Amino acid sequence: MTGIALASSVSGAGAVGAASRYLLDLVVTRRFPRTVPRGTMTVNIIGSFILGLISGLVAHHHLASVSDLIIGIGFCGGLTTASSAAFETARLFHQGKTSAAAMTITFGIGTSCIAGAIGLGIALI
Question: What pTM was estimated for this model as a whole?
Fold first, then answer.
């Protein structure tokens, strides 16, 4: 795949990931309205799982590394959002909702790491 074709593929996958993030965040937020930003945590957990799975498949089952670029950097990069998680956590701290902010940090990062490890573990089977 040429550089331009790969960049186009990564960009297209990123657009699909970003649209997926928006829609999933919308559904989760409407269904479970709470102080804690569950939509952002949900997309980060799902994206971490997918990235762990794809990375493991590329490393251990010889899936084409271009898949890692398109799905990992493109789709998962568009789907996940550290900046929104940071903003939402800072907003909670600013509003005096320290417990919710601490839960967002602990649960969001912790479960994302666990999801990535589970994805990688499944790929190793």
Answer: 0.92
